[in-house]
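From the pipeline queue, job 12 of 40. The input is one protein chain; the requested action is below.

Action: predict structure.
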Amino acid sequence: MKVLITGGAGFVGSNLARALLASGHDVRVLDDFDAVRRVAGTTYLDGLDVRRTNGNIEDAATVRRAVRGADAVVHLAAMSGVAPSVEHPERDFGVNVLGTFNVLDAVRRAGVARVVLASSGAVLAGAKPPLSESILPDVLSPYGASKLYGEAALQAFQSVYGFTGVALRFSNVYGPNCDHKRSVVAEFLRRALRRKPLVIYGNGRQTRDFLHVDDVCRAVGISLRSPSTGVFQLGTGVETSIARLANLVQKAAGTKLEIERRPPRPGEAARNFVDPSKARRVLKWQARIQLPDGLASTLGWMRDRAGR
């Protein structure tokens, strides 16, 4: 297929571009490459044979140009994270709400057949885990609200415009190319490499479901081929506390680090892990990479990158 990845120069997108190319797809990328390079120091796409459109999803004309000729669109471009959305809700709205509308509108105008939308467990942040597709939305942050809009808009557009799509609710994703992110795994691994204290907000008993990016890419690849529609929770189903994550990172780094305690941040869930049984049953997908192995390989990648 000719697959357009919005946000394809960043963390998940660049891993997905590599995976789709390996599967024989024609990959196109829409991204603000200059912005990615300022934050990450690279677009992570060096050496990959992808067609690139430089632009922002808030610009409807740019999105329509990038979508034209695609068989499928994987919409990853977003302002990510709860804390940034609390700090700048207007930016979250512009990219995640208006930008998602522009993508779906371009899809229906171009006659694209298939859409895979990146959503998030943040749409259920206030719900009691394990999180499943049958639980009513319970958002705690502007980020969660913006992702809920994306799910609803995808359902509405595909019901009236003739294409099909799925929304994949990513758990806390980590892996190669995440070194510029503000997620807890990326922060811990960066600090471990520099022998700096690991910062824990709150008591450390808050939990998350940590999902390796390779497992995410497999789920997207399956979703592109599948006729299924609707929402799917992606995760390992394993509940891991932030305190335990800190211990696992120290083991991966082979060193003892100080723990710095800070006040809890607003909008963040106390517990968060998923029931991935629907994805296992319908998409025939399940996570394969266990957290200790994934942390070790990601830290190794970050060490290699720092040594270049």
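Job complete. The chain has a mean pLDDT of 95.
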